[in-house]
Design brief:
Strands 1-2-3-4 form a 4-stranded antiparallel beta sheet, covered by helices on one side. By secondary structure, the chain is of the alpha+beta class. The protein is elongated, with a radius of gyration of 15 Å. It has one domain: GTP cyclohydrolase I, C-terminal domain/NADPH-dependent 7-cyano-7-deazaguanine reductase, N-terminal domain (GTP Cyclohydrolase I, domain 2). It is built from 3 helices and 4 strands; from the N terminus they run ββαααββ. Helix content is about 30%, strand content about 30%. Helix 2 runs antiparallel to helix 3. The structure holds ligand LV4SOB2L.
């Protein structure tokens, strides 16, 4: 199966378990890999047969911007389920980076894979 990816997708959202985190927006960064057979799109040169990464990006940004979850676990799971159900994607891998959440760490977050690759 081929992979379409979105790397370094930065989105500001309300996320966190502490009171102060409920009053501000924090940046999260998503790296998303989506299994998708690109052969029809390649043969036809027609966006109708492609996984439109602009539409995927717009949907994910809109969803995350308007979310207000406490845990990054909940947010990443909801994004994965959205991608699997709203787009014809059989498998997705997401890396969620909540940069700055740990002052002594450059990066902190979660990596998940959902669905079947082939
Ligand atoms: N496994 C998790 N641990 C923690 C989370 C989380 O979402 N999942 N969140 C926090 C705080 O919100 C933290 O990001 C504030 O710095 C702590 N641990």
């Amino acid at each position: 199966m081929d992979i379409i990816f979105l790397g370094g997708l930065e989105i500001d959202t309300i996320i966190g378990i502490y009171d102060w985190e409920r009053t501000i927006k924090q940046k999260i960064v998503l790296d998303i890999e989506m299994a998708f057979d690109i052969q029809k799109a390649a043969a036809s040169d027609d966006i109708a047969y492609a996984l439109d990464y602009k539409k995927v990006s717009d949907r994910v940004v809109d969803f995350v911007e308007h979310s207000q979850y406490f845990l990054v676990e909940k947010l990443i799971e909801e994004v994965a389920q959205l991608l699997l159900t709203e787009f014809a994607i059989p498998w997705v891998k997401i890396i969620l980076n909540k940069k700055g959440a740990i002052s002594r760490a450059q990066d902190v977050g979660i990596i998940i894979e959902r669905g079947q690759k082939s």
